[in-house]
Amino acid sequence: MKRRIKLIVILFSLFWILIISRLYFLSIKSNQYYQELAKRNMVNTEYLLPTRGEIKDTKGNIIAMSKLGFSISLKAHLSAKSKANILKKNLQLIADTFPNIHVEKLYKRYKRYDTPYNHRAITLVDFVPYDEMIEKFITFSQYNDITIKPTAKRYYPYQNTASHIIGYVAKANQKEIENNPIAKHLGVVGKNGIEKQYESILGGSIGKREVKVTASNREIGLINEEKPKSEDITLTIDMQLQDYIKKIFGDRTGALIVMDVTNGAVLAAGSFPEYNINSFVQGISNEEWQKMITNLDHPFTNKFIQGLYPPGSSTKTAVGLSFLNSGKLDEKEEFLCSGELRLGKRKFRCWNSYGHGAVDLRRAISESCDDYFYKGGLRVGIDKISTDLARYGFGKKTGIDLPNEFIGTVPNRNWKINKFGESWYKGETLNTVIGQGDFLATPMQVASFTAMVATGQQITPHFVQKIADKNITYQTLDHIFNAKEQSTLPLIRDAMYDVCYAKRGTAFKYNTSMVTIAGKTGTSQVVGIPQEEKERMSEDDLKYYQKSHAWFTTYGPFESPKYVVTALIEHGGHGGEAAGGLISDIYNKLVDLGYIDTKFVRPEYEYLLIPDQSISDTNTTSIEVNQTTL
C-alpha cells in the first residue's frame, strides 16, 4: 500500500514538474522569440532602391541616364472568387488607360506572383514614362488597390555611339542575383562595358525604411531610414570626337582608338559596326537578337579589346627593337632583299616581288621590307623575340577598365608544345616576325605599344576619369625598356616618321595630317573563317571576307607626342591606303577641337586655321570643309 501511494506521489510530482517547466519555457524562455515575432507584425520594412548613377563624357555630356517614370502595382490576394470582380475591374482600368498594355498579360503576371505567402503589392507594369503617367495620376489615386510608385529606366541618349564602351543594363538572371544580392531588388544589372565593369558604383547600395504599422497595415510612425546611394562616373571620352570617328569610319568594319600617350586616357574608341544599346534595356526581341548574332560583321564583339588579328607589319617596330636589343644585329647592318627568301622547299616572299635591295632597319620599317625581318628573325631566334614581345605587352591584357579583355597570342616553342605537342619550325619564326601566322593581337595592344614607343613609358589604357568628384589616377611604368632599348628608340621613331614622310614610306601618299605624325602600316591575312559562317556566305561575300585586314598605328605630334591613333580596318587591304586618310582626318579634328596646339600645324596647312566667313554653320570648321579638297 505504501509503495502504491509512493508511486502515485512520484507520478503526480512528475506531472506538475512538466507543467511548470513548459509554463516557464513559454512565459520566460520564449519571450524573446515572441517579442521578435510581435515586432515583425508591427514593423514594416520597405527597401529603397537607388537611382542608377549617370555616366558622362569628359565635357559633362550625359551618355547614360535614368529616365524618371512610374510603376503600377496591385494589392495582393485579389484572385479569390469573392474578389474576382475587383481584380478584373482594376486590370481593365490599367489596360484601358494604356492601350499598348494587354489585360491578358497583366492577369498572367498577377496570378504568377499572387501566392498565399506574398503580402506585398504585385508590380504589373515596370515603367510608364513620367509624361504619360502624370496626367493620369489623379485617376489612379482614387483606387485603394492600385499603387503608383516612382521608378527609373536606363536610357542612352546617343543610341549606338560608343556602344561597346558604355555597355548596357538588362534584367538580371539567377546567377547574377546570387552573386549580387542588390540585383534581386533592382532587377537589372550592367551586362557589358562600363555599366558592367563599374556595377557596384553605378548600381550603388539599397536603402531601407522601417515604419510602425497597425494590424490593417496603416503607418503610424517612422522607426529608421537609410538612404540609398549611387555615384556618377565621368569618362575620358569626348562624345563629339567619338561621334566624328563613327561618321568618318562609315560602313567599314573594324576598330579605331584615340588615346593620350602620357596617361592612357582614351579620348575615343570605336568597334564597328555598333549597335543600339537601348534595345537591351527592356529586353531585346528574339528576331532582333538573331539578326545581331548572325551578322557576319559581328557587331556584338568589342573589336578593340576582343578582336584577335594577326598584327601584320604594324609590329615590325617591336620586332626591330628586339633585334637591336639582342646584340646580334646592328642598326646600320644591311640585308639584301631580292624579293623572297628560300627556306628548304618553301619560298617566303616580300610584298615587293622586285626586292628592296640593300636595306637597314630604318628603311626596313619605313618601306616594310619582309625579307629584312626574315633574315633578322633567323639570326636572333624566336625565343628572344617572343620574350621581348611579351615584355612589350603582347600576349597579355593591357589592364583597360572594361570586362572580358582578350590576351592574344605570342607564339614560341613552349607555346606550340603546350598547345599542340609539336616542335617549332624556322618557317614559323619567319611568319611571326612579320606579324602573321599564330601571332594574334588586339588593336588596344598595338595602340598601347605605339604609345610606349612614343614616350618610352608604359601606360594603362582607361576610360574612367572620375568617380563622383574624385579623380582616378593610373600607374605609369618608366622601366619597361632597358637602357639599350631606350637608346635605340630614337631610331625606331625616325623610321616611323619615314613611314609617313619618306617618298617610299608605306603611308607617304595617303598622309594629309596637319600635324607631323609617325606611324607604321600593316596588312594581315585572315586567319580563318568558321565553317558555319562560310555556309551562310554568298560567293561574293566569301571573296570579301577573305581579303586581308589593314592596320595603321600612329602617334603625334612627332615633335612632342601627345596622342596615339590606331586603326584596324577588316578586309581593308593595304594599311596606308585604307586608313591613311582616316587617320589624317582624326589628327586634323584633334587640332580643330583644341587637343593639339595649333603651333604644331605644319606650315603648308596653316592657311586652314583661318576661319571661313562664308560658312553659315558655326559648328562646321574650315578644317573639315577644306580637308576634302586636299
Topology:
Elements: H1 2-29, H2 31-42, E1 43-48, E2 55-56, E3 62-74, H3 84-97, H4 103-113, E4 122-129, H5 130-134, H6 137-141, E5 146-155, H7 163-166, E6 169-171, H8 174-179, H9 181-186, E7 188-190, H10 193-197, H11 199-203, E8 207-213, E9 219-226, E10 233-235, H12 239-249, E11 254-260, E12 266-272, H13 286-293, H14 303-306, H15 316-326, E13 335-337, E14 340-343, E15 346-349, E16 357-359, H16 361-366, H17 370-380, H18 382-391, H19 413-420, H20 426-433, H21 443-455, E17 464-467, E18 470-471, H22 483-501, E19 518-524, H23 531-534, H24 539-545, E20 549-556, E21 563-569, H25 575-592, H26 622-627
Parallel strand pairs: 2-10
Antiparallel strand pairs: 1-8, 2-3, 3-4, 3-5, 6-7, 8-9, 10-17, 11-12, 11-21, 13-16, 14-15, 17-18, 19-20, 20-21
Structural class: alpha+beta
The rough form would be described as elongated
Strand fraction equals: 15-25%
Tell me about the biggest sheet? 7 strands, mixed
SS element count, helices: 26
Give helix % range. 25-40%
Number of strands: 21
Low-confidence stretches: 614-630
Mean pLDDT: 87
